[in-house]
Amino acid sequence: MNRKKLQKLTDTLAKNCKHFNTLEVKCLIHLFYNLVGDVTERQSVVIGLDRNAFRNILHVTFGMTDDMIMDRVFRGFDKDNDGCVNVSEWIYGLSLFLRGTLEEKMKCKERSHRGLDQDHDHDGKLSFSDYERSVREETLLLEAFGPCLPDPKSQMEFESHIFKDPNEFNDI
């Protein structure tokens, strides 16, 4: 990708991504294309990270081992359900995954927790407000079905390794 296209992509994604600045978005784009390049060498034409490549990243980078949880995280990133995480899904997914607010994380996790007894208003239904109240009372409910978010140590290691001077990068 030439510098002009990279800059345009960076500007577009950074403008719509509230948890990363422009430098961080550029670093994540660079990482994405390095990872996709690695995948492309092993397979035919790939336009993004497939489920197996994505799960490998979760395992190696964030220490995740539960197949079901890793598949849920993949589906959370793959918003268009095409079986690949493209560069936009990568940036927006990592934004929430690494730096999302409690409210944002709750909205993503709420569907997974419907079986828990959280019906605070006793109307026989689990509404988002019921779920939100439960999570605010006990934040560990976000992890009730396994760790699906990075632990702080993994998050810091990832960010310190990835967010460096993009001037060091060669053209993608």
UniProtKB/TrEMBL annotation:
One GO MF term: calcium ion binding
Domain EF-hand: 65-100
UniProt keyword list: Calcium, Metal-binding, Repeat
Domain of life: Eukaryota
InterPro entries on file: EF-hand-dom_pair, EF_Hand_1_Ca_BS, EF_hand_dom, Recoverin
Repeat in keyword set: yes
Descriptive protein name: EF-hand calcium-binding domain-containing protein 1 isoform X2
Organism of origin: Hipposideros armiger
